[in-house]
Write a structure and sequence with these properties.
Blueprint: E1 2-8, E2 11-16, E3 27-36, H1 39-47, E4 64-71, E5 84-87, E6 90-91, H2 97-100, E7 111-112, E8 129-133, E9 137-139, H3 146-150, H4 152-165, E10 173-176, H5 180-189, E11 197-200, H6 204-213, E12 217-219, H7 226-233, E13 238-243, H8 250-254, E14 258-266, H9 278-283, E15 287-290, H10 297-306, E16 316-321, H11 325-334, E17 340-344
Parallel strand pairs: 10-11, 10-13, 11-12, 13-14, 14-15, 16-17
Antiparallel strand pairs: 1-2, 3-4, 3-8, 3-17, 4-5, 5-9, 6-7
Length: 345
């Protein structure tokens, strides 16, 4: 079957790999129809790794995915061949101390589709077909498109961060970084607060997109009146900072806009040498909370789509056919115009 494997930095190659027909009783095979290119995919592409997840052999990226049941499981009669499904890429062990504590995202044995976090690596949506436990497949309502379903994963990541942020009612929110996660942060946060939600980025197209979607304000830190404009929207400081950029100095430059006693939730992936404002956090009693992947929020994400409370297609800026995955990855890596690129099969 057709597959595009990551061999190293900026090296994605077409490969013909075996069809995964050796399924267990609880597994199905899904023909992939839509894949979103994630920021972590771009990290793998640019750096050949992400953090300490270092590939030991070529594998297929793509963990934001949806498709059609190709091979059924007798244990899951509702998942007939041809059923349209979203795919939850998270496969925790369910038996470790973290899983039992309800923190499946911290499972040391986590098998995550399209990730090098474990070995053997699990091929993702850059393969034509994937084998997956049937319980990871969620049947789609007719009005939910494949591309919308593929974005359930990043929405789940955002919903997890919002859960860690706590009750947002009556609280103002500052979001740094207007990429996929940042855009979804303001779309999701707006469901839970009517106070100002402000997003910042140095990319004009990203700010324009956020404005069209409906953020309170979209501001560029490079503009001369940035600090005055931002402070005017929350004179006492913002209650919550959702940091979605991963920029090296972003926390140091932004901490002065956070209300005393406020909370920082870190979604963007930093390098180990990133700056951290220890003194400012200490004297203002700020809470810093990192956020990694998601726990049970995938079901909430599905519910929001089924209730039509959020339109994920608003962040899609470009689409590529499956056979142009190398071009799609290069575009996602180089473009300052795009927010979310979708690969269609």
């Amino acid at each position: 079957m057709k597959s595009y494997l990551l061999y190293g930095k900026k090296d994605v190659r077409y490969c013909d790999i075996p069809y995964p027909d050796d399924t267990a009783d609880n597994e199905v095979i899904v023909k992939i129809k839509s894949v979103g290119i994630c920021g972590s995919d771009i990290h793998y592409y640019k750096d050949g790794k992400i953090g300490d997840f270092i590939p030991r052999e070529p594998f297929a990226l793509g963990h934001e995915l949806s498709g059609v049941i190709e091979k059924e499981s007798s244990l899951y009669p509702k998942l007939k061949k041809g059923t349209r499904v979203a795919i939850n890429p998270s496969r925790p062990c369910k038996t470790c101390v973290h899983c039992k504590a309800g923190k499946q995202n911290l499972c040391p044995s986590m098998k995550y589709i399209g990730s090098a976090s474990v070995y053997p690596h699990l091929n993702g949506g850059f393969s034509e077909y994937i084998k997956i436990p049937a319980e990871n497949c969620v049947p789609l309502k007719d009005f939910i498109s494949f591309e919308m379903a593929s974005l359930l994963e990043p929405l789940s990541v955002v919903l997890h961060a919002l859960n860690l942020a706590g009750d947002l009612e009556g609280k103002s929110v500052l979001i740094t970084g207007a990429g996929t996660i940042g855009q979804l942060c303001h779309m999701a946060a707006s469901l839970y607060t009517t106070e100002p939600i402000v997003i910042t980025d140095i990319r004009t197209p990203a700010l324009i997109k956020a404005t069209k979607i409906g953020v309170t304000a979209a501001l560029n830190p490079l503009e001369p009146d940035f600090e005055a404009n931002l402070s005017s929207l929350a004179p006492q400081g913002f209650d919550i900072l959702l940091e979605a950029s991963g920029a090296n100095k972003i926390l140091t430059n932004t901490v002065k806009f956070i209300k005393k006693g406020g909370k920082i939730v870190q979604l963007g992936m930093h390098h180990d040498d990133a700056q951290f404002p220890f003194a400012a956090c200490m004297k203002n009693e700020l809470t810093f909370q990192s956020s990694f992947r998601f726990n049970q929020e995938y079901s909430l994400a599905v519910e929001l789509l089924e209730q039509q409370k959020i339109d994920l297609t608003k962040i899609i800026t470009n689409r590529f056919p499956f056979d142009e995955i190398p071009e799609a990855m290069k575009s996602a890596s180089d473009s300052i115009e795009d927010i979310k690129i979708i690969v269609e099969n």
